[in-house]
Design a protein that fits this description.
Blueprint (H helix, E strand, L loop, with lengths): L8 H23 L4 H13 L4 H4 L2 E2 L1 E6 L9 H13 L4 E7 L25 H11 L3 E7 L2 E3 L11 H5 L27 E2 L4 E2 L2 E3 L5 H17 L4 E5 L23 H11 L12 H25 L4 E6 L9 H4 L3 H4 L5 H7 L4 E6 L6 H15 L6 E2 L1 E4 L5 H12 L8 E5 L8 E4 L7 E3 L4 H10 L23 E2 L4 H4 L4 E8 L10 E6 L14 E5 L5 E7 L2 E8 L6 E3 L3 E3 L4 E7 L7 E7 L9
Parallel strand pairs: 1-17, 2-3, 2-14, 3-4, 4-9, 9-10, 10-11, 11-12, 11-13, 13-14, 18-25, 23-26
Antiparallel strand pairs: 5-8, 6-7, 7-8, 15-16, 18-21, 19-20, 19-22, 22-23, 22-24, 25-26
Amino acid sequence: MRRATALPQNAAWLTMARVRACALSIHCVAAARRVWRTGIVLCLLLSQAPIPAFAQEPVQQYRAFWVDTFNTRLNSPGEVTAVVERATQARANLLFVQVRRRGDAWYLDSREPLPENVPIERDFDPLRELLTRAHERGLAVHAFVIVGAIWNSSSPPADPRHVFNRHGFDPVTGRPFTGRENWLTRTLLADGTATSHDGYRFGNDYWIDLGHPDAASYTLDVLLGLVTNYEVDGLHLDRIRYPEIAVPGQGPETGASVGYNPTSIERFNRSARRPADAVPVPGDAEWSQWRRDQVSAFLRRLYLSVLAVRPAVTISAAVTAFGAGPADDAAWIAAEPYWRVYQDWRAWLEEGILDLAVPMVYRAQHAASGRQAFTAWRTFTAAHQYGRHAAIGVGTYLNSLEGTLQQAREAVSAGEAGTRGVAFYSIAASNAPVLANPLSVPAGRDTPLRPFDDLAAALLTGRTSTGQWVESPAGFSGGLFASPAIVPTMPWKTEPQTGHLMGALRAPDGSPLDTASVIVTREGDSLEGEPPVGRLSAATETDGSGFYGAIDLAPGRYSLLITPRDDGMRQTDCTVEIAPAAVTRLDVLVDGRSPVRAACQAVGRPGAGTPP
């Protein structure tokens, strides 16, 4: 099957520059009443001519739009073309396009069904069409997927293959599946305004629990299939967390009553050496860290698995920015992403298992509290990138054009010390009306709902499409997106100096070793000489499938020290060579009859880029 091929971002932008130059040449020729052939000759010459200096080093800046398929159907070539044209009009360079909404697929090569109640032409592949059209216009595309929420209706899905029909609620009995077949997370709170269906439904949504090994493996397989079958530039993760519940009195000490999937609780109790029938309270510190670890373990496994098969693909995520922005590292553990939904995205950036974080700082700029929260989250994010990238998500649907422009300027204003760009939510809801808008020009005007054309014009010129100022004309030095920009390069991907390790720990009967400690250490290190680039050691734990992984290791030879949950410490009987740019795989057999050693089963060739 035909696949769209992405142009490198610099090449795509330069191609666009040549095309524009050609178009301008033809226009001038026509104005001078020369024959049309002259224009064509000029175009051909321009396409071969050296690129002007201004085109050789365009600014590197994320200019992204989310395209959600609740409000943008993407079910026909016309819908796809309209999205690409809008993004091009606003001089964007990146689209986060939703292709997995609730356990479904806006693409044909998937194990999941097409969306319900959205008519899609027979044999039409929305994602493949969008990749083709977007790449033609120099736009990068990240496939935007919902990880946790898998269904959002009171009626079951029509397709029996849907994951909710197989591991959520039994469509015959109308009750949740029992035992290992139940993949849903739940709360122990009584049903009320925030939850229903015996604690399994949060608002309108049912969520899988990433603490269930089968649910995590299924989701990983779906996303790996997407990355393998489509030439996407990135995989964009949303709702990679637990669901939020608005309950009075909740806080960092009380925790959140969520994550109570029976299989996950069983795993936790074994790991924590608690009675099999124990039920941890929401504020139990060990239980809270367990839930954070399940989400992080899924991302670690996904990151390394994608890196092994398509190393150039960016892993990005829309991460939560609920509540007030933390002032510093110490305040992070009291921030709502950390304790309410167990999403430790600061640690993801520090470990290197996320390439691009996009905090969804959806606040109304015309309200003082919104401005303060926006600035606090932007400041915290800028200070916690750890060599990876971050851009700020702006809620256009909450803001007037004036508010969106102010937030976008703040998101990109700090240069190297700040975040690297902005993402707008969404391309279908580009602004909101605001009465007595304090940000209008002049201040205090009622600003109405405006068309997308006005947002595009404001980004380029500071004015609406009809010439109304959106930014103050006093001291105005040009539109925010007056000049084109390319997606920032990621040196750890384009010029990698470190390598990576992943594998699985298993017992002799093939069962995975769950929650085993793994310490990876570089051999023969000394304090002499130039320090190598990368980590010299890493400490991690296996997930429910036995998977472990270590990111950004300095090149060299490493050994593993393994401590199974219910047994003694073991050294592996081999070492593994880590090479730059390679994802090496080392699977280990841990035999309880051997109290000292653990046998290596398979070692991937450094540099091969794929596991054996």
